[in-house]
Amino acid sequence: METLYLEKSQKYNRLINVVAILIPLVVAVLLGIRQKVDLGAWTKVLPHINGAINSVTTLLLLAGFYFIKQRNIAAHRRSMTGAFAMGSLFLVFYVLYHLSNESTPFGGTGFIRPVYYFLLISHIVLSIGVVWFVLRAVYFAYSGQLEAHRKVVKWAYPIWLYVSVTGVIVYLLISPYYS
Prior knowledge:
This is Putative membrane protein. The protein is mainly alpha-helical. It is built from five helices and no strands.
Protein backbone atom coordinates (compact mmCIF):
# COMPACT_ATOMS: atom_id res chain seq x y z
CA MET A 1 0.00 0.00 0.00
CA GLU A 2 1.37 3.36 -0.98
CA THR A 3 2.05 5.70 1.92
CA LEU A 4 0.65 9.21 1.85
CA TYR A 5 2.58 11.57 4.08
CA LEU A 6 1.06 14.88 5.02
CA GLU A 7 3.33 17.71 6.04
CA LYS A 8 3.62 18.58 9.71
CA SER A 9 1.83 21.88 10.01
CA GLN A 10 -0.09 24.07 12.43
CA LYS A 11 -2.66 24.68 9.69
CA TYR A 12 -3.68 21.02 9.88
CA ASN A 13 -4.09 21.26 13.66
CA ARG A 14 -6.28 24.34 13.22
CA LEU A 15 -8.28 22.61 10.49
CA ILE A 16 -8.81 19.56 12.73
CA ASN A 17 -10.01 21.80 15.57
CA VAL A 18 -12.41 23.68 13.30
CA VAL A 19 -13.80 20.51 11.70
CA ALA A 20 -14.19 18.81 15.11
CA ILE A 21 -16.30 21.76 16.26
CA LEU A 22 -18.21 22.27 13.01
CA ILE A 23 -19.37 18.67 12.57
CA PRO A 24 -21.40 18.50 15.81
CA LEU A 25 -22.71 22.05 15.30
CA VAL A 26 -23.86 21.37 11.74
CA VAL A 27 -25.46 18.07 12.80
CA ALA A 28 -27.25 19.81 15.70
CA VAL A 29 -28.54 22.57 13.41
CA LEU A 30 -29.73 20.07 10.82
CA LEU A 31 -31.44 17.96 13.48
CA GLY A 32 -33.12 21.07 14.86
CA ILE A 33 -34.76 21.92 11.55
CA ARG A 34 -38.47 21.25 12.01
CA GLN A 35 -39.32 21.30 8.30
CA LYS A 36 -38.09 18.06 6.79
CA VAL A 37 -36.77 17.89 3.24
CA ASP A 38 -38.37 15.30 0.96
CA LEU A 39 -35.43 13.27 -0.34
CA GLY A 40 -37.59 10.28 -1.22
CA ALA A 41 -38.70 7.03 0.36
CA TRP A 42 -35.21 5.53 -0.05
CA THR A 43 -34.09 7.43 3.06
CA LYS A 44 -36.24 5.13 5.21
CA VAL A 45 -33.60 2.39 4.83
CA LEU A 46 -30.73 4.59 6.04
CA PRO A 47 -31.00 3.61 9.73
CA HIS A 48 -30.63 -0.04 8.71
CA ILE A 49 -27.66 0.78 6.50
CA ASN A 50 -26.13 2.77 9.36
CA GLY A 51 -26.60 -0.19 11.69
CA ALA A 52 -24.62 -2.28 9.21
CA ILE A 53 -22.01 0.47 8.82
CA ASN A 54 -21.53 0.61 12.60
CA SER A 55 -21.14 -3.18 12.65
CA VAL A 56 -18.50 -3.05 9.90
CA THR A 57 -16.76 -0.17 11.68
CA THR A 58 -16.59 -2.22 14.88
CA LEU A 59 -15.07 -5.16 13.00
CA LEU A 60 -12.55 -2.89 11.27
CA LEU A 61 -11.54 -1.30 14.58
CA LEU A 62 -11.02 -4.73 16.14
CA ALA A 63 -9.07 -5.88 13.07
CA GLY A 64 -6.93 -2.73 13.23
CA PHE A 65 -6.12 -3.44 16.87
CA TYR A 66 -5.26 -7.06 16.07
CA PHE A 67 -3.01 -6.06 13.16
CA ILE A 68 -1.08 -3.45 15.11
CA LYS A 69 -0.48 -5.99 17.89
CA GLN A 70 0.88 -8.31 15.18
CA ARG A 71 3.02 -5.41 13.88
CA ASN A 72 1.32 -5.66 10.50
CA ILE A 73 1.37 -1.93 9.78
CA ALA A 74 -0.06 -2.17 6.25
CA ALA A 75 -3.08 -4.21 7.35
CA HIS A 76 -3.54 -1.95 10.39
CA ARG A 77 -3.53 1.13 8.16
CA ARG A 78 -6.05 -0.42 5.75
CA SER A 79 -8.35 -1.45 8.59
CA MET A 80 -8.24 1.92 10.31
CA THR A 81 -8.62 3.85 7.05
CA GLY A 82 -11.63 1.66 6.31
CA ALA A 83 -13.07 2.39 9.75
CA PHE A 84 -12.57 6.11 9.15
CA ALA A 85 -14.27 5.87 5.75
CA MET A 86 -17.19 3.93 7.27
CA GLY A 87 -17.54 6.55 10.02
CA SER A 88 -17.60 9.31 7.40
CA LEU A 89 -20.24 7.47 5.37
CA PHE A 90 -22.27 6.91 8.54
CA LEU A 91 -22.24 10.64 9.24
CA VAL A 92 -23.47 11.49 5.73
CA PHE A 93 -26.29 8.92 5.91
CA TYR A 94 -27.22 9.98 9.46
CA VAL A 95 -27.60 13.60 8.37
CA LEU A 96 -29.57 12.65 5.24
CA TYR A 97 -31.95 10.49 7.28
CA HIS A 98 -32.61 13.09 9.97
CA LEU A 99 -32.86 15.89 7.43
CA SER A 100 -35.69 14.04 5.69
CA ASN A 101 -37.36 11.98 8.44
CA GLU A 102 -38.76 12.56 11.91
CA SER A 103 -36.87 10.92 14.76
CA THR A 104 -38.23 7.54 15.78
CA PRO A 105 -39.37 7.37 19.41
CA PHE A 106 -38.20 4.42 21.49
CA GLY A 107 -41.16 2.24 22.44
CA GLY A 108 -39.51 -0.05 24.96
CA THR A 109 -40.76 -0.19 28.54
CA GLY A 110 -39.52 -1.44 31.86
CA PHE A 111 -35.85 -2.04 32.61
CA ILE A 112 -34.76 -1.73 28.98
CA ARG A 113 -35.93 1.89 28.70
CA PRO A 114 -33.31 3.45 31.02
CA VAL A 115 -30.68 1.10 29.57
CA TYR A 116 -31.52 2.31 26.07
CA TYR A 117 -31.37 5.98 27.05
CA PHE A 118 -28.11 5.53 28.96
CA LEU A 119 -26.54 3.88 25.92
CA LEU A 120 -28.01 6.46 23.54
CA ILE A 121 -26.90 9.49 25.58
CA SER A 122 -23.41 8.15 26.25
CA HIS A 123 -23.13 7.20 22.56
CA ILE A 124 -24.11 10.71 21.42
CA VAL A 125 -21.89 12.56 23.91
CA LEU A 126 -18.85 10.42 23.17
CA SER A 127 -19.46 10.50 19.40
CA ILE A 128 -19.19 14.29 19.56
CA GLY A 129 -15.93 14.16 21.51
CA VAL A 130 -14.29 11.36 19.58
CA VAL A 131 -14.28 13.30 16.30
CA TRP A 132 -11.36 15.46 17.46
CA PHE A 133 -9.36 12.45 18.66
CA VAL A 134 -9.96 10.42 15.49
CA LEU A 135 -9.07 13.31 13.19
CA ARG A 136 -5.83 13.85 15.12
CA ALA A 137 -5.02 10.14 15.10
CA VAL A 138 -5.50 9.95 11.34
CA TYR A 139 -3.49 13.13 10.76
CA PHE A 140 -0.61 11.99 12.98
CA ALA A 141 -0.53 8.57 11.30
CA TYR A 142 -0.55 9.96 7.76
CA SER A 143 1.98 12.69 8.58
CA GLY A 144 4.41 10.17 10.06
CA GLN A 145 4.14 11.53 13.61
CA LEU A 146 3.90 8.05 15.11
CA GLU A 147 4.65 8.96 18.73
CA ALA A 148 1.89 11.60 18.69
CA HIS A 149 -0.35 9.04 16.94
CA ARG A 150 0.24 6.48 19.71
CA LYS A 151 -0.54 9.06 22.41
CA VAL A 152 -3.83 10.19 20.90
CA VAL A 153 -4.90 6.64 20.04
CA LYS A 154 -4.80 5.71 23.73
CA TRP A 155 -7.89 7.92 24.01
CA ALA A 156 -9.32 7.73 20.52
CA TYR A 157 -9.46 3.96 20.13
CA PRO A 158 -11.46 2.96 23.23
CA ILE A 159 -13.88 5.86 22.80
CA TRP A 160 -14.35 5.16 19.09
CA LEU A 161 -14.86 1.44 19.77
CA TYR A 162 -17.43 2.24 22.48
CA VAL A 163 -19.28 4.62 20.15
CA SER A 164 -19.26 2.04 17.37
CA VAL A 165 -20.46 -0.84 19.57
CA THR A 166 -23.15 1.23 21.31
CA GLY A 167 -24.28 2.46 17.89
CA VAL A 168 -25.02 -1.15 16.95
CA ILE A 169 -26.77 -1.86 20.26
CA VAL A 170 -28.87 1.32 20.09
CA TYR A 171 -29.83 0.45 16.51
CA LEU A 172 -30.87 -3.09 17.52
CA LEU A 173 -32.95 -1.73 20.40
CA ILE A 174 -34.80 0.89 18.33
CA SER A 175 -35.06 -0.97 15.02
CA PRO A 176 -38.43 -2.62 15.87
CA TYR A 177 -39.95 0.88 16.13
CA TYR A 178 -38.99 2.12 12.65
CA SER A 179 -42.08 2.41 10.47
